[in-house]
Amino acid sequence: MTIRCSGGVVLMTHEILNNVRKNLQAITPYSPGKPISDVKREYGLKDVIKLASNENPVGPSKKAQEAILTALGSLHRYPDGGAVDLKAALAAKYSIPTGQILVGNGSDECIKMISETFLNPGDEVVVPSPSFSQYWFGTQVMAGTSVQVPLLDGFQYDLDAMLAAVTDKTKLLYLCSPNNPTGTYIRKDELRHFLDQVPSHVLVILDEAYIEYATADDVASGIDFLKEGYNVLVMRTFSKMYALAALRIGYVFCREEIATEINRVREPFNVNTLAQVAAVAALGDEEHVETSRALNSSGYEQLTKGLEALGFSHIPTQANFLIFDTKLNDKELFQLLLEKGIIARSGTALGAPGYLRVTIGSSEENQLFLNALELVVSKLRQKV
């Protein structure tokens, strides 16, 4: 069968559609938190706050903004394909050779490049559950098999179970710390004991997108283990603490020989110029980092006190978000909050039914959330 437009041009045939790789049929496009503009339009609201995507309420560094303005006049030039200045800045900050650094169009592209480099059809990837959905996506794109290992009570890692899930077919193993969407983390001694037992054919990927927010004394840093020679790849981002989410820029630390292989699948100009110059400037703005960290700390205290007053218990977090047990229909709760102009994240959508995840926002945003939550929860509890 063919489908034609009014001009008689053939648009597509069943034969072409039959050529689509079958493993892609399991993939549905990623569904991010609803944009503020959509919620305003759908519900006729003037004021909407978004606490769904773990964005930094402080906004980007002033230094990063200035760097962007300075670079605007060179937009007719292609970006630096090697991200030389950014790699140099990262190397200086973390004392890691530039040959061990890769830069990507957000952590999403880093995950996809890793998958494209190491996975053949049928290869296995061990992932915690719930955790970041893009690990599964990268695996599925390459027709691999995602082996999901449930977290323990309190959303703690079951590292023994993750080890037990490793087989001869396992190529990659993901650990997210602090974990998204739970905020829980892996301790240094736990990670060392774990890595000492992982078979040498498995590359352990440590996703540390939220590591700059972590304050626990015993939180593991993947960079330390990489420097000690462990078989790990450390993945970080400028989207969270550095508040450059719109520019899409993530980066990887790994062994140089691994970086060389991943570079084979990297697009020539995968990170744009504005992202690169902003990241360099943001990396050197410690005042912005400290301000962001302080706001997150005070916001966490504000939210937890408010949630406790409403009868909710939360999972302690080391990130810029928290998740709590609603003991209600989380999808219904999410919808009622949406109608009041509060965009949060349903636990069901994140693999944690019954829970709600909320970004730690500004003091005003946090209070608006708590006020709205009190109203809608009262309504839902009356129905139970």
Task: Please explain how this structure is put together.
This protein is an alpha/beta fold. It is 39% helix and 16% strand. It has helices at residues 14-17, 36-43, 62-71, 84-94, 106-118, 134-141, 159-164, 188-195, 222-227, 256-263, 273-283, 286-309, 330-339, 363-383; strands at residues 2-4, 10-13, 49-50, 101-104, 124-129, 145-150, 170-176, 203-207, 232-237, 250-253, 321-325, 342-343, 345-346, 355-359. The chain has a 7-stranded mixed sheet with strand order 4-10-9-8-7-5-6, sandwiched between helices. Strand 5, helix 6 (134-141) and strand 6 (145-150) form a beta-alpha-beta unit.
CATH C-level class of the largest domain: Alpha Beta
Structure summary, number of beta strands: 14
Structural class designation: alpha/beta
Tell me the overall shape: globular
CATH topology description of the largest domain: Aspartate Aminotransferase, domain 2
Biggest sheet record: 7 strands, mixed
What is the beta-strand fraction?
15-25%
The helical percent reads: 25-40%
Number of domains: 2
Rg measurement, Å: 22 Å
By DSSP (H or I, 4+ residues per run), the number of helices equals 14
Order of helices and strands: EEHHEHHEHEHEHEHEHEEHHHEHEEEH
Looking at this structure, what is the CATH superfamily of the largest domain? Type I PLP-dependent aspartate aminotransferase-like (Major domain)
Strand order of the largest sheet: 4-10-9-8-7-5-6
Which consecutive residue ranges, at least 5 long each, have pLDDT under 50? none
Mean pLDDT: 94
CATH architecture of the largest domain: 3-Layer(aba) Sandwich
Between the first and last Cα atoms, what is the distance in angstroms? Answer: 52 Å
Pfam families: Aminotran_1_2 (PF00155)
Family: Belongs to the class-II pyridoxal-phosphate-dependent aminotransferase family. Histidinol-phosphate aminotransferase subfamily.
Subunit structure: Homodimer.
Catalytic activity: L-histidinol phosphate + 2-oxoglutarate = 3-(imidazol-4-yl)-2-oxopropyl phosphate + L-glutamate
